[in-house]
Each structure stands twice: as C-alpha cells, then as structure tokens.
Amino acid sequence: MASALPPAEARVALVTGSTAGIGRAIATTLAAAGHDVVLHGRDEERAAKVAADVAAETGGLTDSVHGDVADPGLVSAMMRRIYQRHGRLDSLVINAGVHAAGLLGMVRHDTIGRLFEVNAIGATHTLQASLRLLRRGTSPAVVLVSSIMGRAGGAGQAVYSAAKASIIGLTLAAAKELGPTGIRVNAVAPGYIQTDMLTTLDEHSRTATVAATPLGRLGRPADVARATVFLLSSDAGFITGQVLGVDGGLVL
Fold it and tell me: How many CB atoms lie within 10 A of CB 209?
C-alpha cells in the first residue's frame, strides 16, 4: 500500500458503488494512501458500515452517502451532503453498476431498463451533479468504470455491453469538454474480475476464460483499484480521455 499523504495534501474522493467488489477495493486503496474517502451504496446502513470498516482497516478518514444513482434527485442530494461535509471533490470514481446476462430476444424489458438506468444514465447523473464540487477541487480527476464487454462485447451480454460501451463514449466526450477546465477524465475497462458478478460463471467457463487470458488468471479487485488510483494521481497528470484495459491481455 502507498504511504499516507500529509494532512495538507489529503484529497477528497467519492467512489460510487463501493460497498463491495471493485468499488470497495478502490475505496480501501485510496483510504490507505491518505485520501478522505466518501463511500457510496444504495442502502444507508450498509454504506455507513462499510465506510467504518474501511476506516478501521486502513486508519484513514471515511464518510458515506447513499442513494440509487438512477435517481437524479438522490444523486444531487448526495453531492449536497458532500459539499456540506467536505466542500469539494478532488477525485471521483463512477463505479456503481448492475449486471445481467441474456440472449437477445430473451431479455426482460425491465432488465434492459435497469441496466441502462444504473450503468449509463446513473453514471451521467453522477458526473453532471459532481462538476461544481470537482471545479472546487485541486487537480481534479475522474475515472469511470466500464468493462471488457463495453470494448469487445460478448454473446449473451449485448444489453450489458451496450450500457457499458456508453461509459466509454461519455468518458471520451467529457475528457474533451472538461479538459480546458482542468478536469481529467479517464476510464478503466476491467476484464473477468473475481467478484460476486462472476458467481454465474461455471467451472468450464472459468477454465476457458483463464486459458484465453495471456496472463493466465482471473483479475482481482486490487488490480483494478491500483490502475484506478494511478489514473487519479499526479503521476497521470497528462493523461485524459483514455480507456485502460485491466483484463490480463484478454482484449489485444
């Protein structure tokens, strides 16, 4: 883990969808590096508990907000709370998302709606609502979490792929629009990462995925976290509008 930053240099970071999996790993890595981290989840009690757990694990300072990112009113309320408590955002990770698979022609209408409402529209609500806070920040940076499916697609993943591909379009356009204001915007596109989203992957599919991955293993949440934290850091100060694959070479 990186060493903690001096208090005067601590950055305020919001990580949406950070009560489990990749989001929690990102929040934990940021907190361990000395950031003041605001964790987010749909459920208030769970978000607060995970924030307390991350603080205990890292010795860092954490806070929590809650709400469904598909609801623009709740997203605005989250940003008001962050403003009241922290006054700014230096780093934003838009990670909140849902997953569902299904062959075209067999995906329920409500499933299609939910995939886009959270993964695409929710990401847009979050980025829009955060801009005033980011403009108050120091060297502000944003990382959106897309997916290998958003870059390469996959059978049985058409709707999820389309929603995650929209994240890439949002990243590229926002980087061009916000760059002149000093806000960097990048994305990560994780491959097959060992989280709850892989519970539907049977042993045969898991073995085949590992065999097709040049680095010969599934990814870990920490792999995505380290890449994300790099893109948020001053080491990436001249990087914007990029989509960094964290997939072990599965998309080459």
Answer: 17
Question: Residue 2 falls within a domain, yes or no?
Answer: no
pLDDT, one tens digit per residue, over 109-134 is 999 999 999 999 999 999 999 999 99
| Residue 160 appears among annotated catalytic residues | yes
CATH code (residue 54) = 3.40.50.720
Q: Is residue 212 part of a domain?
A: yes
Span 50-62, pLDDT tens digits:
999 999 999 999 9
| Residue 74 lies inside a defined structural domain of this protein | yes
Q: 31-56 burial string, b = 16+ CB within 10 Å, else e?
A: bbbbbbbbbbbbeeeebbebbeebbe
User: What's the structural domain count of the chain?
Assistant: 1
Q: What distance in Å separates the CA atoms of residue 98 and residue 17, rounded to the nearest whole number? A: 10
Of 143, 160, 227, 232, the active-site residue reads 160
Which domain does 31 fall in, by range? 7-244
